[in-house]
Design a protein that fits this description.
Number of helices: 20
Strand order of the largest sheet: 7-6-5-11-12
Distance between the termini: 32 Å
Strand content: 5-15%
CATH superfamily of one domain: Isoleucyl-tRNA Synthetase, Domain 1
CATH topology of one domain: Isoleucyl-tRNA Synthetase, Domain 1
Radius of gyration: 30 Å
CATH class of one domain: Mainly Alpha
Shape: globular
Length: 602
Amino acid sequence: MFGSEQQAITDKINAFFSENDIPLVELKWTPVPFSGEWGVSTSFFQTAANEARSGIGRGPVPARAQEIAEQAKTWLEAHPVIGIHHLEAVKGYLNLYFSTPEYTCNVVNTVLSQGKDFGKGAPQGERVMVEFAQPNTHHSFHIGHYRNAILGESLSRLVEFAGFDTIRASYPGDIGLGVITVLWIYDKFYRGQEPADVHERGQWLLKLYVEATNLLTEKENETPQETLQRESYDAERRDMYRKWDAGDPEIRRLWEETRAWSLEELRVILAMLEIDIDVWFFESEVDEPSKTIVTELIERGIATDERPEGGAVIVKIDEKLGLKKDKYRTAVILRSDGTSLYLTKDLALAEEKFNKYHVDRSIYVVDNRQSLHFQQAFKILELWGFEQAEKCFHLAYGFVSLPEGAMSARRGRLVLFKDVADQAIQRVLDFESEKTSDLSEHQRLETASQIGLGAMAYAMLSVDNNKDIVFEMDEALSFDGHTGPYIQNAHVRAASILKKAGTRPESAAYNHRLDSHEVQLIDLISRFPDTVQQAAQEYRPLIMAAYAYDLANTFHSFYHAVPVLKTEDETVRQARLRLVMAAKQVLANALALLGITAPEVM
RNA sequence: GCCCCCGUAGCUCAGUGGAUAGAGCGUCGGCCUCCGGAGCCGAAAGCCUGAGUUCGAGUCUCAGCGGGGGUACCA
């Protein structure tokens, strides 16, 4: 926030030390960790350690660091810097405390004039593609898909806000044995029986899949008739896959019809989550181009064609890289029957992303069980001479399981997103706050939806992506403590104060003695832009989730400790009102980056 | 076997190599004549083990132990 001021101070300190022949390492500024006062801090341990190493030896490192800090303090006090109220040298650190009236005014004015753009980064000059929200078709959207979707969307909003040109891409698996399995049972037993409702129909397809899988899976004490029956079903399914591959018009029509149901459900859910996908890649569409790549890889000697010996087309990655241990292993890039695999298609897709969309960074939001797959894909791209391979990044996240174990459609152990969302919204409505009783039915429902979905989103985003999540309904839909609604509530309280205040002051001075709660609030607000950059650069929505909670927590404390409307001094009252306005704005901005709406009432 | 991820409070999780390791849930104790109690204030309780690097390690390296995932024609 205060880049230029900070740079001026850094320059001054550097000048002083170079005059005195003390080689200073680059200064890094961090917020002073102890609350109550507002400022930045830097330490001199590294400089002292470097001295000791180079043999100058001026005593133990901590003592020497403190000595340097004191020198810097003395010198800066003799050559005052505008905006710095006072300094201290303690335990090897130099702490600079801001003149709060000027800076507070500056921060609040900046927030309020920039509004929802406060914190937005300057254009980075790079294009990022985020691939996410990609369930297979002919299945229903479950809570694991939801983690993927909300993680990808939050990440997209973060990189976009941080200044990257951002493309959201989805790559649904619309073909494969699972899809054909559903197609087979639908065709055989259920034609025309599909429900009309988009969600019911999606969930119905899932039931069909479970039933079909049961019919097609070998059981322990099968009678000979059962075995025959099962084998005949399986033959029908295989035949159907062949027909699909050959472009049989009837099978293709059936496929397109059922596929459309799934995609329609997906679009409805994405709309609910306010996710707007820019580019759709379908697995069925990258099938053909991927085979061309295989041919090229064989010609270039990267892939080995073992088909003449009845094998597949493979890439011995470790061998090609000269590695001794099994790390990337051997990857199959084409089946022995000449059909393509997931890996084959991802190679083709990567090429298209770079050549057609000219992306500078390509992020894949896919669960961590596919880590090896992406490592293989990126290495093959590298062997292929594709220089952008190093710009590919697999954002792996832990999978979502249930208290009773892994989710499994076949065992009927699945938590669907829609069911959780419905329940979340119902719980909010049951809460029945008297504050929303004067809202229209439509508004009440809309608010309930914002809060229910906010709770769900926050439950997913407040855990680091590499961690597995055991989904427990009561925990995910809690509204107390470290949750989305807690943050939304801070926003609502700010809104409530402003509504009661009536007027919104155009300006304010901060000449009163600031309460430590006010200082803490302004400190956090001023850190928002840096937090945006950090979260985006590290591809970690968690950082923004943690920030949003901190800000809400600080606001709640402020709210209890510091009177705003009841302040008698009109100048102070206006100053605090402006601070509340700024806090409300930043809470809303932070929540937006998490894909969470900030309501005015709840 | 090999590769990847994880191990922090009773439980679930935070913690850019730096000052006093922080939250939530749960437990215990306070706070509604006061801007919204989905809230606030307080208490008890913690870095898997062992080496190493470093002025300084929860954080980096190696080994061990424990848990999860992956490991040639699924996605």
